[in-house]
Write a structure and sequence with these properties.
heterodimer; A: 6 strands; B: 0% strand
Chain lengths: 262, 218
């Protein structure tokens, strides 16, 4: 066992189990056995919000958070947010709604531009897209970004504000500004300390894991939906371990703790 | 056109993602010194790319605000101010200490200490007011859930305010119970769910199915 890092064996086994389950259910869905997916009102509301913006002739703001893509904790949230951006860009292009994307991370700016450009091309309106005007790098400073975002949203009288990704203290500033303007807001993050702010100030909030299934939910891709069932198998394992752990610790045994820290 | 086509294929970023992911994951679980070194190098590459990306930021800001100023769009003077401060601070940061420019020089530090830091602090401090207005919105007990939130929020506030504990000292253990039991349980559930979601997203990305971030899956 010298080749394995001490204390990470159970983590490796859990990771193998989870990835195995995700692949198994994804492949099962490919054969037509697609599991049912519960409704997520926050994601359903995105189309409605874009439609409302089109009727009002006001823009849609969408942000993928302020985190980068490389961080192990916040990267997946940014990727999830970019997946939603991809969907929203195409919808906005189809309906002729103005789309604005505030960006904090410089390395993500070209990716966001590329996503929007593709969305406009897919909708058959590539000429409507202006990269520097619509996808704006605001500031790499947290509050420089948030103050710019708030001012921009206020000046343009945004009709919809979609925020899905990693957020920190600026979450409440952005959500409250949107609420004051009267935008339809969808907020979602996995940063636990910011979730209450989105719940309080947004019309729809995506809590934790819900943001990670946004890509599957919006794309309606059978394999991706199937992979969510694999994720649920991870939850099942967690529940079993928690219950088992509670029982064993109550009985005075720390065997499970030892196994998990192996 | 053929040359354009091959490097724009989404398979290439997916393959690169898989390669770099393996280089990060393997040394986390296995003792492979050579891989550890490679993994560290890749992290350093990221820092280098971030630095190069500064030029993207500078250029896009210059293009955007330059155009706003040139076209005298609404609020153009704010854009002019952005350009003045950005170019000005860039010049101040050029490392020529002999004429008082560069990081660590009195001028550079003065701008950082007496302009940037207070502005940032003021923005952070304003959060208190944002919380007050959000709390007003959240604490309207129109549903059972909002009612529970109102009750628990009021109890925590009373425990935090000196007058609350002066009236009834038991507010402190009540606050502790709220934090340690229902709040902790919920936080852990959300954290576990989010971690599983992130792993599943990672698996889908490595399988090449999660393509939303890759030119809309095209």
């Amino acid at each position: 066992m010298a080749a394995l890092q001490s204390g990470r064996v159970s983590g490796l086994l859990t990771l193998i189990y989870l990835i195995g389950m995700v692949i198994y259910f994804a492949l099962r869905s490919r054969k037509g056995r697609v599991p049912g997916l519960r409704r997520i009102p926050g994601l359903d509301a995105i189309d409605e919000a874009i439609g409302r913006a089109a009727e009002m002739g006001r823009p849609v703001f969408i942000s993928h958070g302020i985190g980068n893509m490389t961080d192990a904790t916040y990267g997946p949230q940014t990727i999830a947010g970019l997946g939603v951006l991809s969907y929203v860009a195409e919808k906005c292009a189809e309906l002729g709604t103005r789309l604005y994307v505030p960006v904090r991370q410089l390395t993500i700016w070209p990716i966001a531009v590329e996503l929007c450009e593709t969305g406009y091309k897919k909708a058959g309106r590539p000429e409507d897209f202006n990269p520097t005007d619509q996808v704006r790098f605001l500031s790499s400073d947290q509050f420089g970004f948030s103050s710019n975002y708030m001012g921009w949203m206020w000046r343009e009288r945004a009709a919809a504000n979609i925020m899905i990704g990693a957020y920190w203290a600026e979450s409440l500033q952005l959500a409250e500004t949107g609420a004051r303007i009267g935008t339809v807001q969808v907020g979602g993050t996995a940063n636990t300390h910011q979730i209450p702010f989105f719940v309080a100030a947004c019309d729809y909030a995506l809590i934790g894991e819900e943001i990670f299934c946004a890509g599957a939910y919006l794309s309606k891709d059978a394999e991706m939906i199937g992979s969510l069932a694999g994720q649920d198998m991870g939850k099942l394992l967690s529940i079993v371990l928690i219950v088992l752990g509670v029982l064993l610790v109550t009985a005075g045994s720390d065997i499970l703790t030892k196994i998990l820290s192996w | 056109m053929i040359v354009m086509a091959w490097y724009r294929r989404v398979e290439i970023p997916i393959i690169l993602t898989i390669i770099f992911c393996i280089f990060q994951v393997v040394p986390y679980f296995f003792v492979v010194p050579a891989w550890e070194s490679a993994a560290k190098d890749f992290v350093d590459w990221d820092a280098v790319m971030e630095t190069f990306a500064l030029f993207i930021g500078f250029t896009t800001l210059l293009m955007l605000h330059g155009r706003i100023v040139a076209q005298r769009r609404r609020g153009w003077y704010w854009s002019a101010w952005v350009l003045i401060t950005m170019i000005g601070y860039t010049i101040v940061g050029i490392p020529i200490p002999s004429i008082g420019l560069g990081k660590g020089t009195p001028l550079f530090e003065a701008i950082r200490l007496y302009v940037l830091t207070p502005l940032s602090g003021a923005m952070y401090a304003s959060l208190g007011f944002w919380i007050a207005s959000a709390a007003y919105r959240a604490f309207r007990a129109r549903t059972i859930e909002a009612g529970v939130l109102l009750l628990s929020g009021t109890l925590v506030m009373l425990a935090n305010a000196p007058i609350g504990t002066a009236i009834w000292p038991t507010f402190t253990p009540i606050r502790k119970w709220i934090f340690d039991v229902p709040n902790m349980a919920t936080m852990r559930a959300i954290t576990i769910g989010a971690a599983l979601g992130a792993i599943a997203l990672g698996a889908r990305t490595l399988m090449g199915r999660e393509r939303g971030y890759l030119r809309g899956g095209e």
